[in-house]
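4.2 Preliminary Data

To establish feasibility before requesting continued support, the project team ran the inverse folding procedure on a target of 432 residues. The structure was first converted into the token representation described in Section 3, and no sequence information of any kind was made available to the design step. The complete token record follows.
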């Protein structure tokens, strides 16, 4: 099923023309309305009129997450504030989050691209979509919600968590489509099996899973446990939220809604655009974003692009599933964190040595983060209850700083491995 055949199956050349037209317009709008971009363009001595072909996009400046933080909270908006009807923020909790502002038009586009995504998964007016993405400032909940409503499907806005209730609702309402993170889907499957629920009791036909890195192995596990088709959805707050790209049942890549989000792949080392098919960092430009246009946003996500007429009939370019990031950001239970944030929180505590390791595991399909820290000799030779108190203090301090509960293990001084080069701090054992 295809939601918007005209847009999704448009001949390559015609789409190229549309993209160029939209690119010129968005660059002009951004230059004229966002002082930050005017300054960046001027520094590079590039003017909106310099965009004559799609390739000219490489003349434009990149935008990084840090740039958005600088403009916190509303510095990147391109419309008068009273035109903004909704605000979301990125899930990172330290420092200032990235704020995304949406006008009415943006919400419509979001509904459109999410309708395309859900339709790719098989959603129709007759489906019951159980939306297990978090509602709130996170874009997952409302993004899926707008798409479901655009299609006219029945959305159950259950949000994330409350696993037993999720399963009861799934059975009682005969949910046909589930949307949540893939790790949570596996957790649901495990709890379902503990509760004696089998795939025969469950009416799910499809799942739309994303917001974090996952693998083919995870797909196989989810599909066999729930007897459904599990498809990959990609998106990010800075561009809109979920709905930037979605996998179709051919499972040969995620179709980017490139009439709204223009993709480039650049080399991680040189930031030069790479030829099609090569792996590098995904850079996205919003072509139609009204409230907060984004020029060449560095997603830090690693992938490659493939342009072909897909078996499903769509001509939208396909990106390979995201295999990692070009920075050391981790996504733990949906929250974006950098190891440096943990380091900063740790070093704010007296008696802690700057030697630590972060170990990420996924017992029962839920992420857990353990921080092993060396303490000073004095603390380590202290009474057990003092050590316990120290451990609690660190756990609380980290939670306050990054918004995530972690397990702290105190280790003896000089026991963690020292490295000669770049210290390896993070041991991600989630098999992603
Ligand atoms: O995760 C939006 C979203 C919600 C996508 C629901 C899909 C479903 P952020 O919290 O801003 O937004 O995080 C964006 O998450 O740059 C990727 O690193 C990662 N990510 C998102 N989708 C995928 C995916 C939402 N399918 C960041 N595979 C992105 C791998 C993903 N990583």
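Position-by-position output of the design step:
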């Amino acid at each position: 099923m295809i939601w918007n055949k005209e847009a999704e199956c448009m001949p390559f050349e015609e789409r190229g023309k549309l993209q160029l037209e939209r690119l010129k317009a968005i660059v002009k709008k951004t230059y004229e309305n966002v002082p930050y971009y005017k300054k960046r363009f001027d520094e590079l001595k590039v003017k909106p009129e310099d965009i004559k072909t799609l390739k000219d996009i490489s003349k434009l400046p990149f935008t990084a997450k840090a740039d958005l933080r600088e403009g916190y909270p509303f510095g990147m908006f391109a419309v008068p504030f009273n035109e903004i009807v909704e605000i979301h923020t990125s899930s990172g909790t330290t420092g200032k989050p990235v704020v995304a502002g949406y006008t009415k038009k943006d919400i419509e586009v979001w509904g459109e691209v999410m309708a395309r995504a859900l339709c790719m998964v098989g959603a129709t007016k007759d489906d019951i979509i159980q939306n297990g993405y978090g509602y709130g400032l996170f874009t997952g909940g409302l993004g899926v919600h707008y798409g479901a409503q655009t299609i006219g499907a029945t959305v159950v806005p259950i949000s994330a968590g409350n696993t037993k209730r999720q399963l009861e609702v799934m059975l009682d309402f005969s949910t046909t489509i589930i949307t949540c993170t893939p790790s949570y889907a596996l957790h649901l499957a495990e709890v379902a099996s503990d509760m004696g629920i089998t795939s025969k009791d469950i009416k799910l036909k499809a799942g739309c899973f994303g917001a974090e890195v996952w693998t083919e192995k995870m797909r196989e596990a989810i599909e066999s446990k729930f007897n459904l088709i599990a498809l990959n959805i990609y998106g990010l707050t800075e561009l809109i939220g979920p709905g930037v790209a979605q996998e179709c049942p051919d499972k040969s890549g995620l179709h980017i809604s490139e009439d709204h989000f223009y993709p480039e792949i650049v080399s991680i080392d040189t930031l030069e655009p790479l030829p099609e098919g090569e792996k590098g960092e995904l850079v996205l430009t919003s072509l139609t974003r009204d409230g907060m246009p984004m020029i060449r946003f560095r997603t830090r996500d690693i992938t490659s692009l493939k342009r072909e007429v897909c078996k499903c009939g769509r001509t939208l370019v396909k990106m390979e599933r995201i295999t990692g990031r070009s920075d050391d950001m981790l996504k733990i239970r949906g929250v974006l964190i950098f190891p440096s944030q943990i380091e900063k929180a740790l070093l704010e505590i007296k008696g802690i040595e700057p030697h630590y390791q972060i170990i990420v595991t996924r017992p029962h399909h839920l992420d857990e983060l353990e921080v092993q820290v060396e303490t000073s000799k004095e603390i380590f030779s202290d009474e057990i209850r003092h050590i316990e108190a120290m451990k609690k203090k660190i756990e609380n301090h980290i939670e306050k700083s990054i918004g995530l509960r972690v397990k702290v293990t105190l280790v003896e001084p000089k026991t963690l491995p020292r490295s000669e080069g770049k210290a390896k701090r993070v041991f991600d054992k989630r098999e992603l």
